[in-house]
UniProtKB/TrEMBL annotation:
<dbReference type="InterPro" id="IPR034163">
    <property type="entry name" value="Aspergillopepsin-like_cat_dom"/>
</dbReference>
<comment type="similarity">
    <text>Belongs to the peptidase A1 family.</text>
</comment>
<dbReference type="InterPro" id="IPR001461">
    <property type="entry name" value="Aspartic_peptidase_A1"/>
</dbReference>
<feature type="domain" description="Peptidase A1">
    <location>
        <begin position="41"/>
        <end position="394"/>
    </location>
</feature>
<keyword id="KW-0378">Hydrolase</keyword>
<dbReference type="GO" id="GO:0004190">
    <property type="term" value="F:aspartic-type endopeptidase activity"/>
</dbReference>
<dbReference type="GO" id="GO:0006508">
    <property type="term" value="P:proteolysis"/>
</dbReference>
<dbReference type="InterPro" id="IPR001969">
    <property type="entry name" value="Aspartic_peptidase_AS"/>
</dbReference>
<dbReference type="Pfam" id="PF00026">
    <property type="entry name" value="Asp"/>
</dbReference>
<keyword id="KW-0064">Aspartyl protease</keyword>
<protein>
    <recommendedName>
        <fullName>Peptidase A1 domain-containing protein</fullName>
    </recommendedName>
</protein>
<dbReference type="InterPro" id="IPR033121">
    <property type="entry name" value="PEPTIDASE_A1"/>
</dbReference>
<dbReference type="InterPro" id="IPR021109">
    <property type="entry name" value="Peptidase_aspartic_dom_sf"/>
</dbReference>
<keyword id="KW-0645">Protease</keyword>
Length: 397
């Protein structure tokens, strides 16, 4: 701990603990504690009838029998779907957004060109024996990056792994913004709290909400482990994977009032060897649908002041720095615990001319930090959607 009290560096913080990254040094490989069950990982994906049966994550229509991990692609939080019959061999659905609560998919009703449909996994509710249109209901979602989608709603059966969920609202896309026309994903499964669901006039239950109410998972949890190029990423539903090499879990209550996994105290940040006090009211959201880490302007400026040659680029709308610069390690606070990411992760993308775009940027007018995928790649997180929701975070080695 630093002894300096200059600026907002806090001296001797006895209640703050840095999580040990080595599970063999005084810590054990993930104890499941009181949350564990026999429910297997997500997988078989069928949209419609058996003629369009997929061999992986979300199944809409006819249940499947396969049991595999929901793998996460290197490129981020997309899920790779392998189709079995006469369809393009890749269907990628982003199953990553804890900041939304809508399950929506590309559909045969989308008002797009045939060229835009090429190579996509398309849901046709007319070919599903279990689909039923929810008359008078529509939906529209808008995301922080400006992308949007809208359409109508059907009820259908979905299968995630060996977990069958009946009467799930499937939001069928009719209108899609250009962002989604260019993106590789074919839909999105929101894992936020029900309040965020955008179906009108009556909000519909999320897949996680239905899993819990229908009793198809023993414990109301899902877990996220994103790929950081040393092991595959995955999601689980209903149980914790005890094989992940990481520290024990550290638990923190969350506030579900606004629908996000938010409200976690994040009063400190460690930059290199210094810990800075950001005030007791600073809180954070964990969002798998956000790529970067977003912090208040003062903290962002403090971070980049530690990197020689770093500067704010008006054209890029964020901080850039020399690609070969020495970058300090960072540790972000969840409750009383600091979770570390190595300095090299701060280089999000190369801009050319020897400069890189930073992975930590301003949160703008948002009142809370957003801990996105850059941070999530270095932890294993349990999201417990119980009456008193909480998250468990473990530092990965």
């Amino acid at each position: 701990m630093p002894n300096s009290t200059q600026g907002n560096v806090r001296a001797n913080i006895p209640e703050l603990h840095e999580v040990n990254q080595d599970p063999d040094d005084g810590m054990t490989v993930i104890p499941a504690q009181d949350i564990q069950n026999d429910t297997e990982y997500a997988c078989p994906v069928t949209i419609g009838t058996p003629d369009t049966e997929y061999a992986c994550p979300v199944t809409i229509g006819t249940p499947g029998k396969y049991l595999v991990y929901i793998d996460v692609l290197d490129s981020g939080t997309n899920i790779n779907f392998y189709l079995r019959r006469n369809v393009d061999p890749r269907l990628r659905v982003s199953l990553a957004c804890t900041g939304s609560a809508d399950l929506w998919v590309w559909s045969s009703q989308a008002r797009v060109s045939k060229a835009d449909m090429e190579g996509r996994g398309i849901y046709n509710p007319k070919k599903s024996r279990t689909s039923k249109k929810l008359r008078g209901h529509t939906w529209e979602v808008r995301y922080g990056d400006g992308s949007s989608a809208s359409g109508v709603v059907y009820l259908d059966t979905i299968v995630i792994g060996d977990i069958t969920v009946e009467n799930q609202a499937v939001e069928v896309a009719r209108e899609l913004s250009d962002d989604f026309l260019q993106a590789g994903c074919d839909g999105l499964v929101g894992l936020g709290f029900p309040r965020l669901n955008q179906v009108q006039p009556n909000r519909q239950k999320t897949p996680m909400e239905n899993m819990i109410e229908q009793g198809v998972i023993k414990d109301p949890i899902f877990t996220v482990k994103l790929d950081k190029r040393d092991s595959r990423g995955f999601y689980t539903f209903g149980f914790i994977d005890e094989t992940v090499h990481c520290s024990k879990f550290y638990w923190q209550d969350v506030d579900k009032q606004n629908g996000w996994w938010e409200g976690m105290p994040s009063a400190y940040i460690k930059i290199g060897d210094e810990i800075y006090d950001r005030g007791p009211d600073n809180t954070a959201i964990i969002d798998t649908g956000t790529t970067l880490v977003l912090l208040d302007d003062e903290t962002v400026e403090k971070l980049y002041s530690k990197i020689e040659g770093a500067t704010y680029d008006e054209d890029q709308g964020g901080y850039i720095f020399p690609t070969k610069a020495e970058i300090p390690h960072l540790a972000f606070c969840v409750g009383r615990w600091l979770f570390t990411i190595p300095g090299y992760e701060l280089s999000f993308s190369e801009m050319g001319n020897g400069m890189s775009y930073g992975a930590v940027q301003s949160r703008g007018q948002n009142r809370q930090d957003i801990l996105g995928d850059i941070w999530l790649k270095h932890v294993y997180v349990v999201f417990e959607q119980s009456e008193n929701p909480r998250v468990g975070v473990a530092q990965r080695s």
